[in-house]
Amino acid sequence: IDLAKSLMGKKLTKLILHNNSLGQHGMAFVAEVIRGNPTLSHLGLIRNRLDDNLEAVTDFAEALREHPSSSNLVINLDDDQLGGKAEAFSIIIGACANAESITVKSKNLYSQSAIAISQFIAMNHSVKIMRFPINNFKVQDAILIGQALQSNRNMHSLTLQHGALCPLSECSKKALLKSLFDTTNMNSLVDSNHTCLITGISQDLICNLGHVNDTYDPFVNEKKKIISALLDAVMECSDFSLLDGVPTECMPDVLGLIQLDPRELRRPERIDKYSLSLIFEVLRGWELPVLFSFR
Fold it and tell me: Can you tell me whether residue 9 is helix, strand or coil?
């Protein structure tokens, strides 16, 4: 407590504590330092053992939540025990709604933690970056997180694996990719997440368009997916069901998009018209509503 008092009002920008078993008093110390330094922008509790006393955890969480510079706060928690304390983990994550970035490394991140993470993501908080590079998530957890992403429009980056040390299964990758690029129909594609780059997932190429959600412009990301889906349908000249949900008033835009040269799709601002034959193929396969009727 005396050390905490000595650090009050010091205008600290970083608080990094390595290799500690903080315990209840240690958590209280960190909470006091956070409250006493409104300029704090980086909190690193690396290789620590946080206390699971809910009173101490709640006090620590309140200090995070009330921090005046929380929108710029980078939070790194590295505690192998934390993920196994489901209630404590949920309280701490819930307090990070206004942070810039959250990183949690814990071998005890299981399904209960995935539930807390998915609930947090679905709330569409202002957090831009979330990293959980070491975890024990299963396919059902990836599905849950993917579903939550579909209602999030603020997150730019999500990490759920750490190379070969913590790889995601192919089923988990497919579940997450579907949240970013759901080609079931045009409505599901438009409703996909167009802001978040998922490490290890978004690097998959879509057509010749680059990576999934690889720009900070959600409009560009969405446009590339629509073009990719349309090109796949048009080139095969067989499946035009993706167009069924497109409003008739969008027909000119769609017909313009399908004329884009795939070689130029990395630069969405450049439009090269190269063939009218694609338009004829689409018009033959697209079941449009009746535009005019005669009596």
Answer: coil
Paired strand residues for 31: none
Contacts of 262-269 with C-beta under 8 Å, sequence gap 24+, read 262/207, 262/208, 262/231, 263/208, 265/207, 265/208, 265/209, 265/224, 265/227, 265/228, 266/208, 266/209, 266/210, 268/220, 268/223, 268/224
Task: Name the token pair of 208.
Answer: 């010749």
Question: Which pLDDT tens digit goes with each residue over 133-189?
Answer: 888 888 999 999 999 999 999 999 999 876 555 677 888 888 888 899 888 887 888
**CB under 8 Å, gap of 24 or more: what pairs does 236-244 form?**
237/281, 237/285, 238/285, 240/282, 240/285, 240/286, 240/287, 241/185, 242/183, 242/185, 242/186, 242/189, 243/186, 243/282, 243/285, 243/286, 243/287, 244/185, 244/186, 244/287
Closest by CA to 103, choosing from 58, 159, 52, 59, is 159
**How many alpha carbons fall within 13 Å on the CB side of residue 232?**
15
And the tokens for 156? 């730019």
Q: Write the burial class of residue 41 (CB in 10 Å: 0-12 exposed, 13-18 middle, 19+ buried).
A: middle
- Strands (DSSP E) found in the chain: 14-20, 42-48, 74-78, 101-105, 129-131, 157-159, 197-198
Average pLDDT score over residue span 86-115: 88
Coil, strand or helix: which one is 285? helix
Query: What's the predicted TM-score (pTM) here?
Result: 0.77
CB 106, CB 80: distance < 8 Å = yes
